[in-house]
Amino acid sequence: MTPLDQAHAAMADAPSDDAARLRFYDRLAGSELFLLLEAEAIGDRIRPQVFPVEAQDFVLVFDREERLTEFVGHQAPYAALSGRRLAEMLAGQAIGLGVNLGVAPSSILIEAASVDWLAATLAEAPEEVEEHPEEITAPLGLPDVLLHALDARLAAANGLARMAYLVGATYRGGRRGHLLAFVDPLPGAEPALARAAAAALTFSGVAAGSLDVGFFRAADPVSARLARVGLRFDLPAAAEVAASPPAAPGMDPDLPPRLR
């Protein structure tokens, strides 16, 4: 059972549970997927195999390379990319996803409208405001499902910040909320980090939830207070990512080739 199998099983066991369905789509978006191709990639361009099913076109993806081979019956060309990138590539093209068809418990057809929804949800950017907390406290009352979603999202934010602290915050005027404070973000990474936090909130299924995001330097006086009372999330360092060998063209999950 892969993580995607487990998320699919939880969704199937509770068909009326919106949170379980959201967690499946979150897992799909965060998974490395192997997209079946008609032929080997040419440069950065790929041609996926497209299958018509009940008047709709689908491309096929698998969360393990051996599952793709089992489906085809022999070695076949593929491109490896994240579910998030694949949704972005397919958005608006009226193409659905066939996931692990016939070779895994997570076998499912996802229609084009759901692919478009996933791409739009992942692309949502939080509203940017200038507001400074006057009081910082330990976080209270947050559901475990949100904490697990944040942990998973931030674990994938390789090298984008040194760490993050989740705290309670009170702002001028008395507004209270929770703040995810990133320490020493990589210059220019702030929008990506904010989207990651927003996606964790969305896909955790927390109804009417909100989460503020802030960015600080380790030398800022407030950082010491964050460290004392906050729930800490460590992000993988960029050096850990750089230690991995470079991927072949078209095989980097976060730098996908173009469709043709």
Describe the protein's architecture and organization.
The protein is of the alpha+beta class and 260 residues long. It folds into two domains: 133 residues, Trna Endonuclease, Chain: A, domain 1 (3-Layer(aba) Sandwich); 97 residues, GMP Synthetase, Chain A, domain 3 (2-Layer Sandwich). Helices cover 36% and strands 25% of the residues. Strands 1, 3, 4, 5, 6 and 7 form a six-stranded mixed β-sheet that branches. Strands 8, 9, 10, 11 and 12 form a five-stranded mixed β-sheet that branches. Helix 2 runs antiparallel to helix 7 and helix 6 packs antiparallel against helix 7. It starts with a helix and ends with a strand.
Short description:
With 260 residues, this protein is α+β, with helices and mostly antiparallel strands. Helix content is 36%, strand content 25%.
